[in-house]
């Protein structure tokens, strides 16, 4: 098989990676479906950037994603790496061999230019994922609108432009893909946790 692929160790099934994003999970709508109960419905993504492939754990499963036994959030892959989604194991093949640090995070050459309001939207989008709590899904359009005191329609327009700027393809979990790109590029930093009014009253 030409090009990058993964081989599912339990079944021996081989799946070619799509040109941009290949989703992995137990749900019916994913590109590579794994039946193991430890795999979440939408567990992770393989992302291709030129000759490179990296895997992104979507943070939606308690069992996580590992590369060669090490838990990861985002990791550039080398030919022969074993990627585990929960208890399901896959081996990556068809990648060009190159002296790449296995801990290297693949980043875009340059981030797109952003308006001040777009930065505000991205900061609000990523705030849940950057808290000290366990990873949760990025903020919804409604939550961003409440945070920024704007209409939900305005937030959705900003998100559409941001998907285009960051080249996030259409499909499921688009907000999570955008948040992953933004955090990987270092455009949004963890913010100090501000106690809520409820926390202050309880103390």
From TrEMBL:
It comes from the Bacteria. Pfam families: FHA. PROSITE patterns: FHA_DOMAIN. Coiled coil: none annotated. Residues 22-72 form the FHA domain. The keyword Phosphoprotein applies. GO terms for biological process: regulation of DNA-templated transcription. SMART domains: FHA (SM00240). CDD domains: FHA. This is FHA domain-containing protein. It comes from Bailinhaonella thermotolerans. The lineage of its organism: Bacteria, Bacillati, Actinomycetota, Actinomycetes, Streptosporangiales.
């Amino acid at each position: 098989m030409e090009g990058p692929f993964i081989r599912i160790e339990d079944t021996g099934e081989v799946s070619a990676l799509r040109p941009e994003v290949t989703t992995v999970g137990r749900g019916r709508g994913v590109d590579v479906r794994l039946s193991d109960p430890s795999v979440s419905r939408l567990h992770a993504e393989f992302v291709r950037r030129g000759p490179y492939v990296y895997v992104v754990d979507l943070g939606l499963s308690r069992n996580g994603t590992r590369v060669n036994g090490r838990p990861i959030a985002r990791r550039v892959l080398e030919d022969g790496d074993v990627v585990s989604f929960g208890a399901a194991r896959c081996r990556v093949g068809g990648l060009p061999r190159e002296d790449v640090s296995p801990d290297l995070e693949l980043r875009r050459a340059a981030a797109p230019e952003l308006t001040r309001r777009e930065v505000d939207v991205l900061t609000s989008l990523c705030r849940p994922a950057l808290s000290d709590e366990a990873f949760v899904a990025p903020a919804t359009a409604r939550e961003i609108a409440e945070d920024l005191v704007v209409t939900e329609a305005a937030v959705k327009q900003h998100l559409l432009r941001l998907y285009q700027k960051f080249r996030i393809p259409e499909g499921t979990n688009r907000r999570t893909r955008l948040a992953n790109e933004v955090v990987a590029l270092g455009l949004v930093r963890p913010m100090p946790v501000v106690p809520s009014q409820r926390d202050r009253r309880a103390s």
